[in-house]
Amino acid sequence: MLAAENLTLMRGGKPVVARLSATLKSGQITAIVGPNGAGKSSLLLGLAGLLEPTDGRVMLDGAPLDGLAPRARAQSIGYLPQSPEIAWDVAVESLVTLGRLPWRDRGGANVAAALAALDLEALRHRPVSQLSGGERARVLLARVLAGSPRWILADEPLAALDLAHQLSLVAHLKACARGGDRGDQRLGQGVVVVLHDLAIAMNNADRVLVLKDGHLIADGPPELALSPDVIAQGWGVKARWLGDPGALALVVGKVP
Amino acid sequence: MNRASLIFAILLAVLLPLSLLAGRVWINPFSADWPQNAALILAELRLPRAVLATIIGAGLGASGAAMQGYLRNPLADPGLFGIAPMAALGAVASFWFAPLIPPAFAAWSLPVMALGGAGLGMALLALIAGRTSSDAAGGVGGGIALFTLAGLMLASLAGALTALAITLAPNPFALSEIVLWLNGALTDRSWREVWLAAPLVAAGVAVLALAARSLDALTLGEEAARSLGLNPARLLALLVVGIGLTVGASVAVAGIIGFVGLVVPHLVRPLTDRLPSSLIVPSALAGACLVLAADSVVRILPLVTELRLGIALSLIGAPFFLWLLLRMRRGKL
């Protein structure tokens, strides 16, 4: 379990998350949504242990996260930053192997499994500069998976992707939350994603946290947390859901 | 040992004996009649000089590879931390203090004061690092960029003070000596300089090698690197100490020798998987080859006075770097 307890985070001297409490479960996809500047990315950094709380704390399986050594924390929590950079034109396999740094091994089996899980085996020797946007996003997620973390925290991993690639990456994240495809005993990983597309959150998340001005304004299953009332409160937009469960589309009213 | 290390180790093994034979007096190993004093020339002039070139080149190459990895920028140079200008400032100060130094220590005053300058530079960088790593953003972002700007500030301050010391030189003889020294050379160096520089550079390269895996993590950016367990303060300390030792020691014994740290990682990178950790040791070997080769060439050029090594490397380095930039623009790097 990954839990924020009364978490307050500051960035640039300003509070960005204020006294927020939420307990996240593994084996689920938890989506963090909210308007721009709501504190979504800061909350994710705080949950990853990369932004020191000014008040409150983050607990990992009942123990304070800041009590863990950076390496132990890195073995448990994988973090995928927004618009991640790749400084050197390394081959796909070398990049994915970087995910093993917290374990100080080359993690042959884990790297192979991560490459296989994201259909990257054919590209393993290709330099990252020669990848398409969708391939690149898969490689970066594979880097996180190679560390076999119990938690995957991803900041807008779908931002630069077209529709088909968005859906394929979401399918990969769902597979992580479900646990091993091949019927092994591994429990599903906890997946926490910051999302902008409310329809993707609605149709795929098990739980949605809605953030506004650093406060949680809704927290629950998507059909409750993303109700038209919450959307009106969070984004100031009149909207409603159309379609069938699992394939809902958000229809936004005319701008007044 | 990776492929690049092997290639440059073999190249070094070939270059080292060749450089011993080259010079005003050529020594033919296969001829029976060696020039007069050949043994003396080899043991007391060429061997220490070749060893010193190897040591300095290794330090500059390794620190260049580490610096490019740290700044995630192929155009970075170990000079960006301001260590070399600080060491030069210390050395130039020694010309000023020369009359005050007892004759017994006169030979040591320049290298020791240059090391003192490098040490002062490292201490200032550590102070600055304490301020920049705990910035208001909670250490997120800005840290490396801020620190580098502080290093540049230090470099330009040291440069200005050096220029001031030169313009106020006590006498014209001191002036020409300072300017000549600043240009970097390995002429007339002895085993004394080797024993001074070797342990410092070896320690520096070892410290940089400790930073290698952390530099790999930085490939993914600062936040991702921290999420992989990187400790930014430890990495910065390793780099400041490693670059301080290697660059400080080489300025102390040879003056300012530019371009090696900038160019060498580019020669090595295509032979490796391009991760910083794969570059440090081969860059040390390649740097040794480059400085050794350049120093042998300046020795045999038919000029009235020997071309200064620092000038020669800049003359070769600048056009070579332009060529690299053009290649990079075509997306081949």
Could you give the topology of this structure?
The complex is a heterodimer of chains A (256) and B (333).
Chain A: E1 2-11, E2 14-24, E3 29-33, H1 40-47, E4 55-60, E5 63-64, H2 70-76, E6 77-80, H3 92-97, H4 108-117, H5 133-146, E7 151-155, H6 163-178, E8 190-194, H7 198-204, E9 207-212, E10 215-220, H8 222-225, H9 228-235, E11 239-244, E12 247-252
Parallel strand pairs in A: 3-8, 3-9, 6-7, 7-8
Antiparallel strand pairs in A: 1-2, 1-4, 4-5, 9-10, 11-12
Helix pairs in contact in A: 4-5
Chain B: H1 3-21, H2 38-71, H3 83-97, H4 106-133, H5 143-167, H6 172-182, H7 191-210, H8 212-218, H9 222-227, H10 232-254, H11 260-268, H12 276-300, H13 309-329
Report on the architecture of this protein.
- The complex is a heterodimer of chains A (256) and B (333).
- Chain A is α/β, with parallel strands linked by helices.
- Chain A has a single domain (2-252), classed as P-loop containing nucleotide triphosphate hydrolases (Rossmann fold, 3-Layer(aba) Sandwich), CATH 3.40.50.300.
- Chain A is 31% helix and 28% strand.
- Chain A has helices at residues 40-47, 70-76, 92-97, 108-117, 133-146, 163-178, 198-204, 222-225, 228-235, and strands spanning 2-11, 14-24, 29-33, 55-60, 63-64, 77-80, 151-155, 190-194, 207-212, 215-220, 239-244, 247-252.
- In chain A, the strands form three sheets. Chain A has a six-stranded mixed beta sheet with strand order 6-7-8-3-9-10, sandwiched between helices. In chain A, strands 2-1-4-5 form a four-stranded antiparallel beta sheet, with helices on one face. Chain A has a two-stranded antiparallel sheet with strand order 11-12.
- The termini of chain A are far apart.
- With 333 residues, chain B is mainly alpha-helical.
- Chain B has one domain (3-329): ABC transporter involved in vitamin B12 uptake, BtuC (Orthogonal Bundle).
- Helices cover 73% and strands 0% of the residues of chain B.
- Chain B contains 13 helices and no strands.
- Chain B is globular, with a radius of gyration of 20 Å.
- The interface between A and B is medium-sized, with 38 and 29 residues.
